Amino acid sequence: MTRASNVLDNHNIKMRLFKIDFSRHLPIYAALLLAVLLSACSSEQSARPNVVVFLVDDLGYMDIGANNPDSFYETPHIDGLAKSGMLFTDGYAANPVCSPTRYALMTGKHPTRVDATNFFSGKRSGKFDPAPLVDNMPLKEVTVAEVLKEAGYRTFFAGKWHLGESEKYYPQNRGFDINIGGHTRGGPYTGNKYFSPFDNPQMEVDSPEGDHLPDRLARDTAKFIDENKDGPLFAYLSFYSVHTPLMGRPDLVEKYEKRAKEIEGTEFATEEQIYGDKPRQVRVLQKHAVYAAMVEAMDEAIGKVLQQLEDSGVADNTIVVFTSDNGGLSTSEGSPTSNLPLRGGKGWVYEGGIREPWIVRYPGVTKPGSVSDVPINSIDLLPTLAAAVGAEVTHEIDGLDLKPALEGGSLEQRSLYWHYPHYSNQGGIPSGAIREGNFKLVERYEDGRVHLYNLEEDIGELNDLAQKYPEKVSKLRSQLHAWYEEVDAKFLQQKEDGPKPWRP
Fold first, then answer.
1. 504 residues of the chain, pLDDT tens digit each
2. How does DSSP assign 179-202, residue by residue?
């Protein structure tokens, strides 16, 4: 036998042995293959980004240090979030009051399209009756939580809901697996309000006496994150803070009372009024100690959740969004904050009522410490998150996926619209508005008067350019009226035996 034939025989023997061994251990190999495939699927699942959304109630644009280095309030954790993500200088709420903006965040729709144009149950009259108001978010609406849940996410809600009058409309029936505290009311008006016992109908377990509400909501959110760190998870922390009643933690109130004594200057000025004989008072100086305490306590709560992301090892795979539902409360209910240089506040379509803090941290997409002046809106949250997690959106939406802006680029050209056919509790004028580029047109619904502002040159909306640029007014007004028609906007109504209101 030659050496070559010996080699060939040995090779054939080994091949036969291999075949025998493989067939004998086929179940083992199959199990190993299955394990590899499952591991790959698990890795793919865990690689999908987690999502945490912070929504603060009534927080003004100028209430955080990232937007206002001279702010009276300390917000180190929010400011740190901005440094680790992207700060939007031109971020907006969909409406100057809470429920409509919350509706827009949930659905990606203009609240005008569904007649959810005021806070739910808000039907105050003035010279005219307000427009018809739908004050429940219908069950047919598809929420961002439902979109993410369908994509395999574990979903969690904590805090203020204010999108329906009964339990069938509450978060646990709108796509959230867990609901802590979300119900009908627009503020913490039960129990001891911001301090336990909370007596909240959607908190199965109350807190130890004296517990602070933002801390409680942050702890529940942090617990959810840690228990679901293998992901993917979606946590939506919707603070009751800094909405009235104005109540602060005693240690923080004392801190800011001392600081306020060192600040001199005029605290209030007057804003135009739409009813009554007295001018509306508007705060022009930040020095309200209780409100400052509420802001800092909210910031501390955010810090606890952000720390939990780090401790659970998921911070580098979590999209974090921070925003507010309307402008700061500057013209009513104690007028605790100033929005200057922005005009007006909550309840007004001036910038003080609709321009909001907006921060997004999207690891691998947003550059740490970046700033964008791309105008964005509450309607953009759902499409952005859906695209980020690869979820399909099959219902009608108005918002855009913000990823091009988050990457440092721009979005497709569009105008932003607001429609508020109501008399706000804060004195706001029933109005509509359109922003296109740097120009903003405000249209008053009582008489149809219009005002035009160049926001790049006049962020305070003090220099009306309507007479100077009639062609610009005509163009923007035509666009605004076309949008009214598109979304079937409703307007002020005539009172019995009263004058007829203006119509576009």
1. 444 444 334 444 333 333 334 344 444 444 444 443 444 444 444 589 999 999 999 999 999 999 999 999 999 999 999 999 999 999 999 999 999 999 999 999 999 999 999 999 989 999 999 999 999 999 999 999 999 999 999 999 999 999 999 999 999 999 999 999 999 999 999 999 999 999 999 998 888 889 999 999 999 999 999 999 999 999 999 999 999 999 999 999 999 999 999 999 999 998 765 444 567 889 999 999 999 999 999 999 999 999 999 999 999 999 999 999 999 999 999 999 999 999 999 999 999 999 999 999 999 999 999 999 999 999 999 999 999 999 999 989 999 999 999 999 999 999 999 999 999 999 899 999 999 999 999 999 999 999 999 999 999 999 999 999 999 999 999 999 999 999 999 999 999 999 999 999
2. EES-SS-SS--STTTTBS----TT
CA distance 92 to 95: 8
Residue with token string 């309840």:
347
Q: For residue 459, how many other CB atoms are within 10 A of its CB?
A: 15
Given its phi and psi angles, is residue 374 left (phi above 0), alpha (psi -120 to 50 degrees) or beta?
beta
**Residue position matching structure tokens 């509306």:** 280
Amino acid present at 464: D
- Burial code (b: 16+ CB inside 10 Å, e: under 16) for 299-318 equals bbbbbbbbebbeebebbebb
Q: Which two tokens stand for residue 223?
A: 């617990």
| C-alpha dist (Å) from residue 126 to 96, 111, 282, 450, 501 | 18, 22, 20, 20, 11
Mention every residue, 6+ apart, whose C-beta is less than 8 A from residue 307. 222
**Residue 368, class by beta-carbon neighbours within 10 Å (0-12 exposed, 13-18 middle, 19+ buried)?**
exposed
Q: Which SS3 state, helix, strand or coil, does residue 416 take? A: strand
Closest CA to 422 of 346, 355, 492, 490: 492
In this structure, what are the phi and psi dihedrals at residue 317, rounded to the nearest 5 degrees? -130, 35
The 3-state secondary structure of 14-54, one letter per residue: HHHHHHHHHHHCHHHHHHHHHHHHHHHHHHHHHHCCEEEEE
Place of tokens 């301090």: 195
Q: How many CB atoms lie within 10 A of CB 363?
A: 15
**Local structure of 244: helix, strand or coil:** coil
User: Residue 323 and residue 359: Cα distance in Å, rounded?
Assistant: 7
pTM for the full model?
0.90
Q: Token digits for 418?
A: 């607001």
Instruction: Output phi, psi for 432, to 5 deg.
Output: -125, 165
